[in-house]
């Protein structure tokens, strides 16, 4: 198959592209900087900026299916991605796989991420919507500075349990549903196989890394201020604060078997994630 992948240099899309190429598919991938990307056989880069999607939309004319995710930092997910849904309809793609986030199914229909999901569901294009829980990888991306500088995880998660998912399991799930005809017109939340608290995260990191890592249950307002002073837009920072409060209330604790059902393997556990990324901290 030939597949369009949005945000091709990112965590989830990057691993998805590797899986597609390894298995003989070809890819057109979106990035804001196509000229910075390495030439790879069967992989073409096109310029896609959130509000400048022209070349990405044109690429849909040349592919069988598309994977869409909303670039982090923006709350206008519908405005950014609905043009791709419209174009997919026009060129009659065989499938669109959309990644949103666990909990979006409960958002009001006018909330941008939910509005996008509903637009895809109503589009008549064969679709799969995947809603992952919080990524394990956040501990070496978003929260890395506190861990490196102070050996502390700063997050307003209280003692809530979270069924964190390894982003490699998300990429593998997308790979399976996009390349297999029978997965269509379905929605799946994706979780890890265990739910653990941030205190337990700190304990696992301490054991694996051999240095004491502590969890600090920061005040939500301090968390918000730290996001804004780190340069995140205010609306996106408020969005993160809102989903962190849902986590604190226990909404990120449920566990399901969807990763195993789709990929036919056990989800990666948190200890394995830390071992595999040891050098990051
Ligand atoms: N982190 C979590 O815990 C979590 C949980 C559930 C759902 N999610 C969802 O996961 C998605 C992010 O996935 P990810 O972590 O794999 O992404 P990522 O690694 O942060 O990057 C995605 C790509 O988006 C591209 N991008 C950034 N700004 C852009 C812009 N203005 N216009 C166009 N492209 C842009 C970047 O590519 P270039 O720099 O090459 O342009 C980047 O490689 C979000 O939709 C988020 O809601 C995250």
Please, could you describe this protein's structure?
The protein has 281 residues and is an alpha/beta fold. It has helices at residues 11-22, 54-59, 77-90, 112-121, 144-150, 167-179, 198-209, 220-229, 234-248, 258-263, 270-276; strands at 2-5, 26-31, 43-47, 65-69, 95-99, 127-132, 152-154, 186-190, 214-216. It has two domains: 2-132, NAD(P)-binding Rossmann-like Domain (Rossmann fold, 3-Layer(aba) Sandwich), CATH 3.40.50; 134-165 and 191-256 and 264-281, UDP-galactose 4-epimerase, domain 1, CATH 3.90.25. 40% of the residues lie in helices and 15% in strands. The strands form two sheets. It has a seven-stranded parallel sheet with strand order 3-2-1-4-5-6-8, with helices on both faces. A two-stranded parallel sheet has the order 7-9. α1 (11-22) packs across α6, α3 (77-90) packs parallel to α4 and α7 (198-209) crosses α11 (270-276). The longest helix has 15 residues, at 234-248. The mean pLDDT is 97. Bound molecules: NADP nicotinamide-adenine-dinucleotide phosphate (NAP).
